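Hi all, long-time lurker, first post. I run a small reading group and we've been trying to get comfortable going from sequence to structure in the token notation. Rather than ask abstract questions, I figured I'd post a concrete chain and ask someone more experienced to write out its structure so we can walk through it together at our next meeting. Sequence below, copied exactly:
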Amino acid sequence: MALTKVQAEGVNLADNFAFTGTVSGSGMNLLLSNTISSAVAQYDISSTYINSTYDSYIIYATLLPASDNVFLKSRVFVGGSIQTGTIYGAEAGDNASSNYMNNNADDSMKMQTDTVGNATGEGGTWFISLHNVNNTDRPFAYFGDLHKYSTSGTSASSTIGGGLIVANRGSVVNGYRFFFNSGNIASGAVRVYGIRT
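-- Answer (accepted) --
Happy to help. Here is the structure in token form:
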């Protein structure tokens, strides 16, 4: 293979480049980019995307509920089955107030302190990073941020985190589910990245 040298003046990044082969080193790979254009009861990210390839992932999700005044929740898949037992812990805190939420033995992970609205432009945008997906010594965990709009259109942001309880540290996660506590997901967009280390 011929070696191409970069000249001292550098590379013009406005040019078009095509890479072939395997790109190595740290960074992110886009695994999924999907639009939710019709109502669904839940949105699942399957083992096609969350599997043993990476131990950490980043998810961007912008979701509008079909029902007003609801909470977003999440669960994980283990061995291809959704986990519904009281094996989850979660915490959230609003950034501009003393509004907090905490639980350590729930059947899902609550992704916000209070509810979101379903009018046009409301709902929320979640940024979460998933960790210890394949680690059997430490439990699966996520942390991230949320920006949401309430039923009155008021905006707020929160810091969120959660995961499986310590007793379930041996669970290998191979999927992730978003759902609202009542009603469908009316519309949205989801992107998933695998984190190269």
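A couple of things your group might point at:
Residues 22 and 28 are 13 Å apart (CA to CA).
The chain has one domain: 27-196.
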